[in-house]
Design goal:
This protein is an alpha/beta fold. The chain is 43% helix and 14% strand. The chain is built from six helices and five strands. The protein has a five-stranded parallel sheet. Helix 5 links the parallel strand 4 and strand 5. Helix 1 packs across helix 2 and helix 4 runs parallel beside helix 5. It is globular. It starts with a strand and ends with a helix.
């Protein structure tokens, strides 16, 4: 019953030294095949730009968009991951403001640069929530921490409460 899948996994993007051209050819073939499969099953497949700390392949939104354009399959899309965007030195609000109006951002991962949930690190999610609202964002979003502090249940509860509080107290 799911409607989308996210292709993150930095381990699936390891390139052999001096092999970016072959990696790109293989990625294009892979995403063309997965895009066709996703289209047949009415699923959206998001190519997630990751942090340069975690991988060397598809680390910018532009990288994902180049692949999507080359494959030309409507089942492929892209997204913004707050951790990856901030870790790469980009301003999340600027990136969202640039790309959401162009219709290319369909999913947002809420996580912080310390790899914990929103509200547990230094990213100010209030301005992100405000912008998503102001732009009329209708895509999906998810909380994606990598470090569950103090544990999974508490991390989830804190993230839900934090984000809900920001959404409800918008000015």
């Amino acid at each position: 019953g799911g409607k989308y899948l996210v292709h993150g996994s930095p381990a699936q993007r390891t390139l052999k030294k001096n092999d970016e051209a072959d990696g790109r050819v293989n990625a294009t073939k892979y995403f063309a095949e997965i895009g066709d499969h996703a289209l047949k099953h009415d699923v959206k497949y998001y190519i997630e730009p990751l942090s340069r700390r975690d991988t060397e392949f598809v680390t910018r939104l532009e990288d994902a968009l180049e692949l999507i354009t080359e494959v030309d399959c409507p089942a492929l899309g892209t997204m913004v991951d707050c951790y990856a965007t901030a870790t790469n030195g980009e301003d999340i609000v600027t990136v969202l403001n640039q790309w959401i109006p162009k219709g290319v951002i369909e999913h947002v991962h809420f996580n912080d640069v310390n790899r914990q949930g929103p509200g547990q690190g230094s990213i100010k999610f209030g301005s992100i929530i405000d912008l998503l609202h102001d732009l009329g964002y209708t895509g999906t979003s998810a909380v994606e921490p990598f470090d569950y502090v103090p544990n999974g249940t508490a991390c989830a509860a804190r993230a839900i409460g934090y984000l809900r509080g920001l959404a409800e107290t918008r000015h």
